[in-house]
Amino acid sequence: MSQKDDHGHPHAHPAPALAPSPDWRDRGVKVIPGDQLDPNTAQTPGMSRATAINQARAGAEKIWAGTVHIHPDAKTGAHHHGDLESVIYVLKGKARMRWGEALEFTAEAGPGDFIFIPPYVPHQEINASPDEVLECVLMRSGQEPVVVNLDIEPVETPTEVKWIDPIHNA
């Protein structure tokens, strides 16, 4: 890789040496086949989660990743994931998210969209399609399968919230 020095001239830096490790074969890259995910993880009513990446299956220390499927017109109960951050990537279908103390806010996401859920945010995933399964990839910032199901009476008409990029002006 070439970088410029203090005078703007390019020069190369040697790559840092890797610590010797005799076990890269078993402690290196893992490919988990999509048909071998583990459904034995914390569940929320209205959805099916399956684990791909965690400590036991892949040796991950800081993240959890898997899939979630929500049937047509189905919705989860209100819940949160404790101090974990979550990211949902929509593969297929249309997700409607509701969040807040009375699920008073809403936004929708489709294929190719990412959804970020901060720690402790009460939320609900809804399949906004009456005839298509909502398929997503789910990632969390920790290993614990934290799902705290909540008894929330949602507002009848939530406020739609559009995302505004805070670092790039339109």
Automatic annotation (TrEMBL):
Q: Give the source's domain of life in one word.
A: Bacteria
- Which stretches are tagged as biased composition: Polar residues? 38-47
Question: Which residues does the annotated region (Disordered) include?
Answer: 1-47
Q: Where is the Cupin type-2 domain?
A: 67-132
The protein's matches in PANTHER family, at most eight in alphabetical order, are given as: H2HPP ISOMERASE
**Stated name of the protein:** Putative RmlC-like cupin family protein
